[in-house]
């Protein structure tokens, strides 16, 4: 399906020019364009399955696509990113950089919050400071450090107050960001939901309740209308959105249906227009039955099992390596899933940002060879028939996660004599358990925040707030630090390859597979994008064809 944008177009500059400091004056953003000859339905409403209940709708407290799926409709940032990695204007109409270290963003005249009040440069400054403020306790507080914003590291370490962050308002319409070092993919990172401006007045007035429908103030094409926990969330058109003229839908409903089978059944019953996914066991039959309603596209993400690296016996690299070797990733990707997912032997999916990394030599071994090596490692760590290894494997409630966990536990038992006791919790509960460190091994995944390998690799830095396994390795951190100052793409690739090699050797997690995006989409839904590399669905792009 061809990309559909607004009638005003912006010819993106080549990446080589984007990083030279030239002034950009882009004009277009994500928007729905209805082709000639298409008749719109009188009812412009869409129902999506979100697969789970969001833990929050505060952009600074969110950490997964369960939340971001909704936040991407409620809020916008300074820029957005198209399918080819080019920055498009949102709240900022233009920007320029000086040596890729000082970036100046010029806000659109007259932009407003959903309550009609003005969005100003001070709102952007407040929001970035709130994200990094230790009192906010954001899971994404490290993001501004990764982004290279001046003083971010010192603020996270408690050595400076948040108001010393390298961002300031030059006037009501101009925001200036100073970096500690140039980053070529800076604009791609600025589009992330954690950097969406939030309304200070609403937060100070309502505190933790500011995200409730009656209180929330947002900036995107839609605004929150209702939130019935574990039932549905609805959003309606935000007439104060700067590009409201190019929005077609009037309402979007998000359902928290965790069962993929129920998701499909409700789709067939006409209760859902876009499913969250497609059950693996039904994929082939649904493809035959529904044809073009089955949409499979790219999705930069990695599914993995994370070890609690600070807890015995998983603080022993031999145990982690053995459990990694004992899983047959090809069977999980091809047989348990079978929608086009690929077995993962590196954290970073192939061709992320144009890079592909070599896997460890064990990736080319037979499973029998891996099993034999794993048994040696377990024996050296003190585990065997007389002292078998038993641990808990935690996953969030979902049929697919359950099927993968059953397959993994069966492989560990058959191949290594290891017992994995399966535990499942609801998404929000599992996040709490994970962040508190009360687990042995936990199912997790990382979806790209931007199209560059560092989005995957940075999560395992020693001081990263999303470092769930609590992995610590100075050489790993050093390799990623060096990549920031590398003078060529070949040098960057060398540093990233070193980081991947360390992850393979230390095995803080077991990457299982790299994602694809598989959804059922009603034939009357127009504007659906099959090619977004991050699998994002923007409600603003959609429209309902008369049917």
From TrEMBL:
Compartmental location: Cell envelope
Alphabetized SUPFAM superfamilies for the sequence: Periplasmic binding protein-like II
An individual GO BP term: peptide transport
The UniProt record lists the keyword Signal: yes
Stretches assigned to the Solute-binding protein family domain: 89-465
Signal peptide limits: 1-31
Protein keywords: Signal, Transport
GO MF annotations in UniProt: peptide transmembrane transporter activity
Superkingdom field: Bacteria
Matching Pfam families: SBP_bac_5 (PF00496)
Gene3D superfamilies noted in UniProt: Dipeptide-binding Protein, Domain 1, Dipeptide-binding Protein, Domain 3, Periplasmic binding protein-like II
GO annotation, cellular component aspect: ATP-binding cassette (ABC) transporter complex; outer membrane-bounded periplasmic space
Record family assignment: Belongs to the bacterial solute-binding protein 5 family.
PANTHER family (UniProt xref): PERIPLASMIC BINDING COMPONENT OF ABC TRANSPORTER, PERIPLASMIC MUREIN PEPTIDE-BINDING PROTEIN
Protein name (database record): Oligopeptide ABC transporter substrate-binding protein OppA
Biological source species: Rouxiella aceris
